[in-house]
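Troubleshooting log. The previous run stalled partway through. Resubmitting the same two chains, unchanged.
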Amino acid sequence: MLSRVAESLYWMGRYTERAENVARLLDIGLFIELDAELGAGEGFSPVEIALTILACRDAFPMDLGAPSRDAVLRFLTFDRSNAQSILSMIARARENARGAQEAIGVDVWSEVNRLYLFLGGTRAQKRFVRSPSGLFTSIKNSCLLLDGMIQNTLPRDEVYHFLELGRHLERLDVLCRILRAKCPILTQAVDGAEAAMQLVRWTSLLRSCSAHGPFLRSERERIEPEGVLRFLVLDSEFPRSIRYSAARCQASLQEITGGDEDYGCEAERILGRLESDLRYLDVAEIFDRGLLRFLDSLQVTCHRVGDEIQRSFFLI
Amino acid sequence: MQATHSDGSAALFSGYNLAAYDEMFGPGRSPRPHYAPLYDRLNDLGPGEIEHRHKVADLTMRNQGITFTVYGRDQGVERIIPFDPIPRLVSAQEWDGIERGLKQRVRALNLFIRDIYHNRSILKDRVVPAELIFGASGYRRDCMGLRVPKDIYIHVSGIDLIRDAGGEYLVLEDNCRTPSGVSYVLKNRQVMKQVFPFLFEQYNVRPVDDYTDKLLSVLRYIAPDGCDDPTVVVLTPGMYNSAYYEHSFIARQMGVDLVEGRDLVYDRGQIFRRTTRGLERVDVVYRRLDDDFLDPLAFRPDSILGVSGLMGAYRAGNIGLANSLGTGVADDKGIYPFVPDIIKYYLGEEPILNNVETFRPLIPSHRRHILENLESLVVKAVDASGGYGMLIGPASTKAQREEFRRKIEDNPRGYIAQPTIQLSRHPTFVDGRLDGRHVDLRPFVLYGEDVFVLPGGLTRVALPEGSLVVNSSQGGGTKDTWVLHHAGGRA
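Second attempt completed without errors. Output:
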C-alpha cells in the first residue's frame, strides 16, 4: 500500500488509542478524587498526574494560580492549543483518517468524523458540565465502537495491520508512562491510614487500565504491588498488558513484512526481543533490577520501535 | 394551485410564485404529468415532515464528511453543500434528446482537440480563427504532435445545461478539464433513498450507481499497449483542495489508490508509487489537478503538487492520463461560440443541443451591441470559472458596468456576452415551504470504448431568491436528479 496511507493509518491507530486512554485516566482520576480526600503536598492528585503522564505540565497555563480540577479536566479534554488534549488527538486521528478514507471505508471514517464534530461542538460541552464522567464514557464508547468496526469490517491486510500496529504500540507506550508516573508514589513504604490510601491508589491504577475485574479473577489474591505489576506488565492474556501489546505489535509487523522465521525489519527484531524478554521475566527480577530503571528502558525500547517503523515503511 | 390534499398542501405551496420556466408546474398551474405523483406525495408529507427529514439528510452528509472547503479565511472552512430534498425530474423523452446531444458534442470536441494538436485543418479552413486558439489559456503548445492512447482526450466531461423560458435545453458551458460534482450526484441519490424512500415508489428512476464502474473501464481502456492488468490511481492536489472529498470518494468506489504528487516518482521513463514494499509501477493516472500543476519540470516550476517527469512518461507512451493535456482549448469561453460550427465541421451534423446566443467583442457589430446593452447582458471573462469574473447586467451597478466597459475595450478577446437568461425554476424547500428557485443541470459524460452519459447529473440550485448564480462557492445548493425510464419498462 502507499507509504503515506500506511503512515496515516498508523497514526490514526495511535491517536485514537491515546484519546481513549486519556478519557479512561481522567474518568478514574475524577472518580477517586471525589471518593476520598487525598493528602495534599504528597505527589499530584489523580487528575493532575495526567499532566505528568502526557508530558504537558509545562503547557498548562499556571498564571491562574494552582490548577483547579475543572481547569485541568478542560485543558486535557477540550483545549485545542494543548496537543495532548482528547480533542486535539481526535482532530489528528481524523485528519489522518481523512487522508486514508479509501482504505478504511465509509463507516470507520464517519465514526471518527462524528466523534470529532461532537467533541468540537456544544453538545460535548453541555455533557461535560452535567457530568464529566458521562462525557468520558461516551468518548470511550465511541473509540470502542470504532475498534469494533475495524475488527469486524476490515480484511486482515496491511490496512488493518498498520492500524493495529499503531494502536498496540500506543497502548504499550501509555501504560509505560502511567506506571512511570505513578510508581514513585505507589511504592513508598507507608503505614496506618496511609496504607488504606495506598490500596485505593493501586486499585485505581488497575481501573484506569480496565484491569480491576480481570486482575481479581486471575490473581485470586489481594491487591498488592508485585501481583498488580506482574499482571499489568507480564500477563500473557490480558489485552492491555505490556507483554500482550508487544506481542500484538510483533504479530502485525510480521503480517506486514511477511517474515516467517527471520525478522523482516529492525522494529520486528526489537519487538521480538522485548517479547521474549517479557515472556521469561519474573516480577521479582524487575524489582531487583529497579522498577524505575526497568520502566525507563522499556520506554526507550518503545521509542526505538516507533523510529524504526518510520524508517522502514514511511520514508520510502 | 390545487389545495385539495391535506392541511399541509396549502402551507407547502402557499405563495408559490410562477416565473421563468417552472420545472414542476405547466400551464394553468397544474403539475406536469411526470411531476404529478411527486406533487401528491410532497403534499401528503407536509412541511413539518420534510423539514425533519431535511435535517436528517444534512446530518448524514456532515457525519460522512461530504464537505467542500471555502477559502478566504485563514485555513479554509469545511462546509456541506446545501442539499435540497425536492428531486428534479427529467422525463425519458427529454433525456433522449439530451443524451444524443451530449454524445454528439463531446465527440466533436474530442475531434477538435485532436485536430488542433495535429493537422489544424479547422484553422486552415478558417472555421475557427487561429488567434483564438493560440491566445487561449488552455492551449498547450507542448501537445503538438503528441499521440494519446486511442486518440481520446476528453475522458470525463461535465456539460452545463440550462433551460430558457420556452423550456429548451441549451448548453451554457463545457467543462473538459477536471469537472467536479459527480460524487454529489451519487451521494445525493444515496441520501435520498435513506431519507425519502417512498418518494421513489411511484417512479422508475434510472440508477447512477454504476458511474465509477464505467469510469474505471474508461481508465483501464487507455492503459499503455501491452498492459493487461493496469494499475490505476487517482491523483489529487491533497486534503486541502476544495474537491478532496470527491477525489477520495471516486478512488474508494473504484477500489484504487488515491495518490498525491509526493506519492509518485519518475524513474527511467516510468511512473511509480511509493509503497510500504518499495516502488510499484503505475499505468494510468486519473488526475484531478490542472495542467499547469501536473509536472513542475514541464509547466509551473513552483508547483509542489505534481510529479516531476510525468510528462516524460506520458510522451514516452508509458502512462495513460485522463483527461489528456491541453483539453482546456475546447472549453475556453472564447471557443464556445464556435462549437456549433465545430460539430458541423467534424460530424457533418446539425447540433442537437443549441448554444446560448453569444456576442463576441472582437466583432465590431457585436461589440457595439454589447457596450450599448450592458445592463441586460451577462458578460463573462473567457478564462474564469466558478461564477467569478462575471457581470450580470440586470443586477449590476453603474460602476461595475463602467469597469466592464473598460475591460472589454482594453481586451476584447478576453470577454463574451450573452443575454440574461431566466434559468428554469424548480420547487425548492426554503423556510419551511416550497418556492421556485433557478436551477441548471450538469450531466457527466465518459469517453472510452463508447461515449456514455450518466443518466442524471448534478442539478445546482441558486438558493437566494431571484439569484441566477448556482455555483457552490456563491451560495448554490444541489438536488438529486431523477432521469425516468420510458413508461412500461426499463430502457
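Takeaways: The interface with chain A takes residues 62-65, 239, 244, 248-249, 251-252, 256-260, 262-263, 273-276, 278-279 of chain B (CB under 8 Å). Residues 1-8 of chain B have pLDDT under 50 and may be disordered.
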